[in-house]
Write a structure and sequence with these properties.
With 645 residues, the chain is α/β, with parallel strands linked by helices. Helix content is 30%, strand content 21%. The strands form seven sheets. It has a nine-stranded mixed β-sheet with strand order 1-2-7-8-9-11-10-5-6, sandwiched between helices. Strands 12, 13, 14, 15, 16, 22, 23, 24 and 27 form a nine-stranded mixed β-sheet that branches.
Length: 645
């Protein structure tokens, strides 16, 4: 077939090799004319850019500039969103000349009067796409890699867990009477002056960097209750993390975002000054409710940002009559809602991700007048020991857009070894909730029919399931008994028994009885049933017994959902007075009453009495009611706990 181009006739013409080469070049250029004068200009053609609304861009840039303003001076740095091609001039003479001609007065000014510290321009990357975050992470962070499934593996630095003892809350006149202070409280006070010092330290550090990342998103799926959250960070990994964990705004919502309700300054790569007042280490996580700001210094663990937002919502939601809960939540086909309370490692994320029930959320929720809603836009699941056969929904969510934190992978295949704890036990996966195939979007639902309180009993004496009265629900909710799972916090290397009020003491802002009284009121109003499920040990304490099988726990949850346990026959467990079912479908009868699975009965009785004593000792902190329940209510709650002869 003829192409219309006779190269042989060209080669055969007079004029020698030079003439023939020129003719060949001319023919090729005519067939495929160059679209750029050099490689850099060609690379510039590789990406298309949307037309931008300059007025909205200026409004957004001014909002970000105010966020980065130093408290010591009046003006913030001049910032731009994304990095224009003409800001840093290319070296090719032709491309350089073209770029210089395109420079605006604004860009020229940026080289003279850009920041509070008088250094080079600050380039702000605002709400990038996932692909752009990947590109930046791979370019600027040596610890970032793409795994075999497309996830982004990265490292959080020296801190691989939260640092709860380094959390500080500013004691300001407006909120000081609301905040839970003193014994048992996670809120360590800080004064206004020290907060300003740490804020200045964080902002100055961020303003000295070549580039920073700003992500604007929402906390709360209920439009009437959501907050606008702004996160300023130095690492693309942190920006992508919050892109996953907050609710991602549409282009229209982003254009109208305006001033945030709360701002997080993550300068975690820069340490706190250990000699500053109220500091106990080089890490400091500081919250000011008056200024609506959070400062992070000395830790790059991304979970600090997530839980900082939750702490804020734990203050703000109850103030508006909405109960905030550290919980997972799913909904059945008939609209029946179940909430799962529990700390990390108790199975909250695993059990709420049920293929038969759409997921509302796996960790943080609000319960208001119209029902429940997820606070977050994503999930932060533990990855240690992850297997597809046990947790298919989570395993399949690990793909492009997911962050894998502190995992180990094969150098050649990039296949992740989820069994490895070489870096930490607290390996994590962060992904948008849409990555769960049966996620319920939008993440809102009706009032809960069932509440399941999960614990991981390291002593092995609590039953796998028991039905609770209203007072027992308040007692065990306030107690928040479980085992602290290895790696969840710095310094924890193996499970140990612990109590964490409301199954999330580290994030509470009000006294626990405030949340418990709201829970009891909502349960009574909406006919909600409460259950206590132990996903920990049986047949002996940790080290001698064995952990309940996941399939048995799932069978118990199924029996709750299908109504079997509402109709079951119960017997009372001594000391704790818990009502234990005599039979559950697909669960061995011998494991239902803990005493039956222990060989050494004397050891069981001693361990049971010991745990009861620990419960009573822990509850002394809350037995006065904290000002949120009446003395009579406080007495009834206390009476619902264990009793020793």
């Amino acid at each position: 077939m003829s192409t219309g181009l006779n190269l042989s006739s060209v080669v055969g013409k007079e004029g020698g090799d030079g003439k023939r080469s020129d003719d060949l070049r001319r023919l090729v250029n005519e067939a495929h004319p160059p679209r750029a004068s050099d490689l850099e200009e060609l690379q510039g053609l590789q990406k298309t850019q949307k037309e931008r609304d300059e007025a909205k861009d200026e409004k957004r840039q001014e909002s970000i500039a105010q966020t980065l303003r130093s408290k010591a001076v009046n003006a913030g740095p001049r910032v731009i969103t994304k990095e224009p091609r003409h800001l840093y001039l290319p070296q090719s003479p032709r491309s350089r000349a073209k770029a210089e001609a395109e420079q605006t007065d604004v860009v020229r000014e940026m080289f003279h009067d850009m920041s509070d510290v008088g250094l080079k321009p600050v380039v702000v990357y605002h709400n990038l796409t996932v692909a752009e975050y990947y590109e930046h992470a791979l370019k600027y962070e040596k610890s970032s890699h793409i795994t075999s499934t497309g996830a982004l593996a990265t490292l959080s630095g020296a801190k691989t867990g939260r640092s709860p003892k380094d959390k500080r809350v500013v004691k300001d006149p407006e909120s000081m009477d609301d905040i839970w202070w003193g014994k048992g409280s996670p809120n360590f006070e800080m004064d206004e002056h020290t907060f300003r010092l740490n804020r200045e330290r964080a902002v100055d550090y961020l303003n000295m960097l070549d580039r920073i990342y700003v992500f604007d998103g929402f906390a709360g799926w209920d439009p009437a209750s959501r907050l606008k959250i702004r996160v300023v960070s130095a690492r693309p990994y942190h920006a992508l993390f919050m892109n996953n964990m907050l609710i991602r705004p549409s282009e229209e919502e982003l254009a109208e975002f305006g001033t945030p309700d709360f701002t997080i300054y993550n300068a975690g790569a820069f340490p706190a000054n250990r000699y500053t007042s109220y500091m106990t280490s080089s890490s400091s996580i500081d919250v000011s409710l008056e200024h609506k700001e959070m400062i992070i210094l000395g830790t790059q663990y991304a979970g600090e940002m997530k839980k900082g937002v939750f702490s804020l919502m734990n203050y703000w939601l109850p103030k508006r009559g909405i109960l905030s809960l550290h919980s997972g939540c799913n909904v059945g086909q008939g609209g029946d809602v179940t909430m799962f309370f529990g700390l990390s490692g108790t199975g909250k994320t695993t059990l709420s991700a049920d293929p038969k029930r759409p997921l509302i959320g796996d960790d943080e929720h609000g319960w208001g007048d119209t029902g429940v809603f997820n606070i977050e836009g994503g999930c932060y699941a533990k990855a240690i020991g992850l297997k597809r056969e046990n947790e298919p929904e989570i395993f399949d969510a690990i793909k492009f857009g997911t962050i894998l934190e502190n995992v180990v992978f094969d150098d050649e295949t990039r296949v992740v070894d989820y069994e490895s704890n070489s870096i930490t036990e607290n390996t994590r996966a962060s992904y948008p909730i849409e990555f769960i195939d049966n996620a319920h979007i939008p993440c809102v639902a009706g009032h809960p029919k069932n509440i399941i309180m999960l614990c991981c009993d390291a002593f092995g004496v609590l039953p796998p399931v028991s039905k609770l009265t209203k007072e027992q629900a308040m007692y065990y909710f306030i107690s928040g008994y479980t085992a602290k799972v290895a790696g969840t916090e710095m310094g924890v290397t193996e499970p140990e028994a612990t109590f964490s009020a409301c199954f999330g003491s580290a994030f509470l802002m009000w006294h626990p009885t405030k949340y418990a009284s709201m829970l009891a009121e909502k349960m009574e109003k909406h006919g909600t049933t409460a259950w206590l499920i132990n996903t920990g040990w049986t047949g002996g304490s940790y080290g001698t017994g064995y952990r309940f099988k996941l399939r048995h726990t799932r069978a118990i949850v199924d029996a709750i959902h299908n109504g079997e346990l509402l109709e079951a026959e119960y017997e009372s467990m001594p000391v704790f007075n818990l009502q234990v079912p005599k039979a559950v479908t697909n669960v061995p009868t011998e494991v239902l009453m803990p005493s039956n699975s222990w060989v050494d009965k004397e050891a069981y009785n001693n361990t049971l009495a010991n745990l009861a004593g620990l419960f009573k000792e822990n509850f002394v902190t809350y037995q006065d009611g904290g000002g949120h329940v009446t003395p009579d209510e406080a007495h009834r709650i206390l009476a619902a706990g264990p009793h020793m002869a």
